[in-house]
Please model this.
Amino acid sequence: MPSVTSSVENSVTDASRRDFLKGSIAGALVIGISLSTGTRHALASAQSAAFTPNAFLRISEDNVITVISGTVEMGQGVLTAIPMLVAEELDADWSRIRFEQAPTAAVYNNPAFGMQATGGSTTVRAFWAPMRKAGATARHMLVAAAAQQWQVPVSSLTTANGFVVASDGRKASYGSLVALAAQQPVPTDPALKDPKDFKILGKALKRLDTPAKTNGSAKFGLDAPKLPGMVVAVMARAPLPGAKPRSVDSAKALAVKGVVQVLTIPNGIAVLATGYWAAKTGRDQLVIDWDMGEHAGLSSEKISELLEAKAQMAQTAGVVALETGDIANASGKNLEATYQAPYLAHATMEPLNCTAWLKPDSLELWTGTQGQGPLQNILSSITKVAPENIKINVFLLGGGFGRRIAPDFAIDATVLSMVSGKPVKLIFSREDDMAAGFYRPASVTRLSASLDAQGRPVKLNVGVGTPSIAVASGFIPLPPSGLDGQAMEGIADHPYDIPNQRIAYGRAEPGPQVWFWRSVGHSQNIFFMESFMDELAHAAGQDPYHYRHGLLGHQPRYKAVLEAAAEKAGWGKPLPKGVFRGIAVGQSFGSYVAEVAEVSVDAEGQPKVHRVVAAVDCGMTVNPEIIRRQIEGAIVYGLSAALYGRISYKDGRVEQGNFNDYPVLRMNAMPKVEVHILPSTEAPGGIGEPGLPPLAPALANAIYAATGKRVRQLPIDPNLLKKA
Amino acid sequence: MIRFNLNGQSVSIDADPDMPLLWALREDLELTGTKFGCGAALCGACTVHLDGKAIRSCSTPLSLVEGKHVTTIEAVSAERVGAAVQAAWVAHDVPQCGYCQSGQIMSAVALLAQKPKPTDADIDSAMSGNICRCGTYNQIRAAIKDAATTLSGGAR
Model:
């Protein structure tokens, strides 16, 4: 059984297990569609095929409909959204819907990636069509079954709320039809509903995973079961890529009661013990002399210097991401600014962890991962266990934000099991998690513009100096030009009408391991661009909202969210004394979001955000309440970063360790948040990330309105905002 | 051997008295609803009740628990306040990833047990030790107010 089933919905597991024991699972209708090849291998089986992974949907005789999700739950609501897509086309009774986390198998590949992974705000976008088809296929076969049973034409039958209904009023529950339905031919292209007929999609249904998350029964990776002979490992990792231990004195660690073994593996030194406390205590007793390697002495000052030099270079000689007109021929009132954003840790609430058990011909993992597909291949190459013999029990993720698509923690747990011969639960302390690298890249970006007599920008020259996540990821090839699309997203695709532009990349690699972080390149680039647009508006003597609006002639969706956010926030209307507004807009992952922040700044320079009003166009919606919560959550995540977030280096080491020196937003600083979803018939956009990028510039622009001081570096430094 | 009352049952553990209660709960007693977040009483994910008061179990050595009553998320609904808070959490669909929510609920229950009608300032003060990276603070606030209303006999 996939583990999350048992962990999240105990009742479901128990029911399934009972069904299995009774053999009544033989009456289940199973529908699967191969997403990886784009062809359909629908399975309709009356066998125990209910347990084969090549399936998205299982209907049992007791009318329970189990929907199986290939993407993982990290708070973004996929374990509700995926079932909603299926239930809509199935005309299912929503109260009978259960979810299950899929095992690792190609059939569950995310069509956006061609591998089984969760990220890039892709779940609804990528599974919108296939999951609806899975539901429609099942419905089609259930109707055919009823037609056969009643000897009436298919065309005389309808479906509603888990029943097939005949024209004479006879009804048959889906559960009563499963055996017969399984014998029906699989339709190749079942008709999908017209969106105007949706009954489930677009409704604010309650999340299916809530009850388990309020009573302690929800299982996260760290809650993986105790295995026979299992040890807990805590590691000392290299402070920077390339650092190696010159010597390790483990005598004191081994003297700690409960410590079993100290092992040196490629990524560091691990203390294995009977439990976390002994392992952590032992790890803290290790005496390690690190050879810091090529990045010895790395400091945030050196990093900034390198990035700035690359940004400067990029303005004249970088890899061009966008070029229109000719910047050499444009002139007017000139503006220039240099912006900077720091490395950021994801700081998920659940520290990284993985339990691994390598046996002679098999490997089993218990963890929360965003990338079980690639992980299977990576671990196969390390252990030489065939991918199909690597079982990954995916648990709920206590936050992902991109961090959990990295394989590092699973690799280390696997290697430790390989070397020790035992099942190993590897746990990162908060400090380990904070210092382990895989950060949102730092960036320095220089922007130059010229305004014509009317204040319109006629020239924009941008140089971006930042590391390449593509290169760091090891699985995204850079094109021959060396252009990293993620380094430039949010800035090279800005929406404004500017006739002469050159936007270019200067790759810089100061050393720290960089990674995908909620909204990726947009997270810093939209801050740069939308702050600079504010500078241009003020230089032109124009209102920042109207200025943007006038430059969005070809961008109706940007314009619509900008208008909606301004209107809902009461742009231009009076605010309480000392409170000021800032506005920003951005598109990422196929969704458009504008945000207005209402901010005051006290005499000490400390900003307080009172309210954020967001308007979002994410196309057709699955669950508007989950959308509002994702936008609100992204605003909070972005606000934490804008106000406090910074990973800094001194003498080759990360200076932050825990929530005292890497603060995040708490209840007492939480603003009111309003999210307005624009009605749309466009294809669905992503929703986990797009709420984040406009927050920092909306905040910084409000700070400018409040203080006349321009924030060009994150996190916001109150010392620079103090009243003189 | 350290003895205490856990969720109404007496338990005894043979462990390092300096070991935090959190690890005894999670690893020895296999009650995993209480979460590890920071190990330094900075995030609140590990919040449990010690003789009715909210404490951070990651930084409370076992020796301090001897002879006392510990309540965890698994048993909090047995009491009236706990049941009302849990019900409000479900009604407001508070959790996203859910990892911090055991601690949030334990802090909220302790608050309402002490202050049945908390002000916004009371909520800020009682709940600001509990971090949520998904950003569910506004829903937490609404659920606490809702539970307070229920407990005072008002309609939800």
User: Anything to note?
Assistant: Helices of chain B lie at 21-28, 80-91, 101-114, 120-127, 137-151. Chain B touches chain A through 57 residues (CB under 8 Å).
